[in-house]
Amino acid sequence: MSDDMIMMYVIHDALRRDLEHLTRAVERGDLVEPRRRPAADAGWELFKYLLHHHHTGEDIALWPRVRPRLAERPDDLALL
């Protein structure tokens, strides 16, 4: 595993940005506007899919490699 975590930070930033966009759509009332609702719904479904996919990838590829490095740091290990 590369110790370069840049892509993880990029993806986390993108997910936060997209969630902010969805939040603004709700605040604007896009969910009650019939012509905007489908786009807001599609954005939410895509966000959920990408978030799940990202976390599954972390569970498979990242955390198993991090856990041994935290073996002597139980407080940090508990955060995973």
Short summary of the structure?
It contains three helices and no strands. It has 80 residues and is mainly alpha-helical.
Molecular structure report:
- The chain has 80 residues and is mainly α.
- The chain has a domain of 43 residues.
- The chain is built from three helices and no strands.
Q: Span from first to last CA? A: 18 Å
Averaged pLDDT, please?
A: 91
What series of H and E elements makes up the topology? HHH
Q: Identify low-pLDDT runs.
A: none
Biggest β-sheet description: none
Percent strand: under 5%
**Any idea what the shape is?**
elongated
The assigned structural class equals mainly alpha
- The count of DSSP E runs of length 2 or more, i.e. the number of strands, is 0
Q: Helical stretch count?
A: 3
Percent of residues in helices: over 70%
* Gyration radius, in Å: 17 Å
